[in-house]
Specification:
This protein is mostly helical. It folds into two domains: 86 residues, RNA polymerase sigma factor, region 2, helix turn helix motif (Rna Polymerase Sigma Factor, Chain: A); 75 residues, Arc Repressor Mutant, subunit A. It is built from seven helices and no strands. The longest helix is centred in the middle third of the chain and has 31 residues. The radius of gyration is 20 Å and the shape is globular.
């Protein structure tokens, strides 16, 4: 299929920039390996670009893109057949459907968590962000935040509780509105 027209190219770029992380998250719920999910995202992104002229402006781009990603995951399943953890097609379909149904709630939780992170003091926020960087663990995060290993574990438990309470409160407040 032909490349999108110049005005559609700008729209495609804006939509991909807006939704690429969410599309990746969707794929990663269906694929056990982060690197495999990244590979599938690349394949899906190419197909999204190739088929963008078929996308109807005003409809849900994220859902459309996730449908393409879903078929890319299904096609890639043959590659993962030798992996230790492989879901059968029924499980894959249930996970996909559940993720789609929970998308709005997950978005709300993500926004509430972001607000909670901004309410933390700088040291606690740095502790959480350092701990959850790719490849980091508590032992690596502790010295970066001026804590001992044991102190870091205690701090993370306290911070997680604070964030959980913050998210719970934010969601309850939003629901009451």
């Amino acid at each position: 299929m032909a490349d999108p027209s110049p005005d559609r190219s700008t729209e495609l770029l804006q939509l991909m920039m807006k939704y690429q992380r969410r599309i990746f998250a969707y794929i990663h719920t269906l694929v056990p390996s982060r690197s495999d999910a990244e590979d599938i995202l690349q394949e899906a992104s190419l197909t999204i670009c190739e088929k963008f002229d078929d996308f109807e402006i005003g409809t849900n781009f994220y859902s459309w893109a996730c449908q393409i990603a879903y078929w890319k995951v299904r096609a890639a399943r043959k590659k993962y057949a030798t992996a230790k953890v492989v879901f059968n097609q029924e499980v894959l379909d249930v996970i996909s459907q559940t993720r789609t149904e929970m998308e709005e709630e997950l978005d709300s939780r993500h926004v509430a968590l972001s607000r909670g992170l901004h309410k933390l003091n700088e040291r606690d926020r740095r502790m959480v962000l350092t701990r959850y960087e790719s490849g980091k663990n508590v032992s690596a995060a502790a010295p970066a935040c001026g804590r001992t290993g044991q102190g870091a574990y205690k701090a993370l438990n306290r911070i997680r509780k604070v964030l959980f309470d913050c998210v719970t409160f934010e969601l309850a407040t939003d629901e009451a509105r």
